Amino acid sequence: MLKKDILRRKDDFSSIYKKGKSIGERYIVLFYKRNGLSYNRIAFLASKKVGNSVQRNRARRLMKENYRFLKDDIKSGYDLIFIARNTINGRKADEVNKSMSNALKKTKLIDQNKDHRN
RNA sequence: CGGGUAAGACAGACGAUCGCGUGCAUCUUCGGGAUGUAUGAGGAAAGUCCGGGCUCCACAGGGCAAGGAUGCCGGAUAACGUCCGGCGCAGGUAACUGUAGGGAAAGUGCAACAGAAACAUUCCGCCGAAACGGGUAAUGCCGUGGUAAGGUUGAAAUUGUGAGGUAAGAGCUCACAGGGAGGUAUGGUAACAUACUUCUCGUGUAAACCCCAUUCGGAGCAACAUCAACUAGGGCGCAAAAAGCGGCUGCCCGUCGCUGCCCGGUAGGUAGAUGGCUGGAGCUUGCCGGUAACGGUAAGUCGAGAUAGAUGAUCGUCUAAUACAGAACCCGGCUUAUGUCUUGCCCAACUU
RNA sequence: GCGGAUAUGGCGGAAUUGGCAGACGCGCACGGUUCAGGUCCGUGUGUUGGUUGACGACGUGGAGGUUCGAAUCCUCUUAUCCGCA
């Protein structure tokens, strides 16, 4: 993952929240919006509701790890924000993987027939 | 075996595949690239409760005022409200633990309710030819009066018990006991302890104001320094009398910045970037000094530096491997959260 | 990272030189009024023990301490909220 792939600016976030679409899943919430670039930009968030800093870091790492397996199948030109819900605490990697691929299938940003589990 | 108490250790390891930050080397299409290699969270990283370094405010300053903190003694330390060793007091059968522990005999305040009274107070009681006055057939009968022994209330009521004494009483006197203050002697660096002796005798509260001693300037890495798009229009130089505004917690000094004029082309600084950013009161081991905290010395050693934030995922073996929990400028403490194990000591019980 | 504030019955919110905790309002329960409901009026309303009586114990986010006595003073702690780029 290169640095240009990470969403960083406040303006980008607020425009995605405002104008983008959102999908809820068991462990995560996904915001997405077309960005007009040739590549995807992403961000992984975990609010204080998720827990203390250890739990928040773990939530973001699990999402990041699973994004690695999914990213090649995602269409280009979108901004994506993955937000952890507090139900993610104590979950294993493949449970989160299932939740993320379900969310992406709902958005039709990903090929629905392929098996995306590692 | 059970209960308790004190001290200490570890905080997973190894292998396989994939993945991330940083340093270095090489390659490079010079891009926030690729490959290789090294390295990569804690005992509390936490709470932000104290102390310091560092940066800026003037070199951290002067005077007055106000305020904060600390408070037995000796030592350790860069410093501390921390640590070590002791003293007194309190708790515990004990091991052991706790302790904001100066001054109430400088002054002020407060002590609700209850109670007569919360400082010198007479409600009940006691006394009375002890004193003065009045009165009765008579009588402390009445007024002034004497009295804190007894009663009641309360957390607390003028040190307790006994005897003498007295009208009744009173440390008024005596004996014994208790508290406080002073002195002397002995031991100890000291706090203090023990003994003797003189004087004296009502409380509590200073985590109420206060007094005494010691001590403290403010803000913080979002500090601060450098570079610098877009936008906005300001800035250099010169002059310096006075004043105003703002910063340095209040006032007076002191000081920094801004408010003036002229000239002609640059300066300030937002987004952003870079530095600050990790080699330090450092860590490990040995020896020496010290009861200890700690200090000295020799050798060895370099162990994160991110910037939306790097340690992860899956599997196997061992195992108690689980709990609390993630560096964000850096150190020394304190406090709180928390898994497993080890050792010493105490109590109780049992066996030989 | 730094700085600051708050916490009291089911809810809002009183009570601070330390001295009866829960005033007052809302809500809730019961009773009255009404044909019925609302309004209105009255009573009760923290937890718990007790013969549901008298009365006692515990209760101001939590744990200690000072004091005769603590919601109030002191120390530690937990949660929530606010401000600073």
Poorly predicted segments: 114-118
Kindly state the number of beta strands: 4
- Summarize the main sheet: 4 strands, mixed
**Adjacency order of strands in the biggest sheet:** 1-2-4-3
| Count of separate structural domains | 1
Structural class determined from secondary elements: alpha+beta
- State the share of residues found in helices, binned by percent: 25-40%
CATH architecture: 2-Layer Sandwich
CATH class: Alpha Beta
Cα Rg: 13 Å
* Oligomeric state, counting identical vs distinct chains: single chain
N-to-C CA distance: 18 Å
- Strand-and-helix sequence, N→C? HEEEHEH
* Count of helical regions: 3
Query: What fold name stands as the CATH topology?
Result: Ribosomal Protein S5, domain 2
Strand content: 15-25%
Mean pLDDT figure: 79
Give an overview of the whole structure:
The protein is an alpha+beta fold and 118 residues long. It has helices spanning 10-19, 53-70, 93-107, and strands at residues 21-24, 28-34, 41-46, 78-84. The chain has one domain: 2-Layer Sandwich (Ribosomal Protein S5, domain 2). It has three helices and four strands. A four-stranded mixed sheet has the order 1-2-4-3, sandwiched between helices. The structure holds two RNA strands.
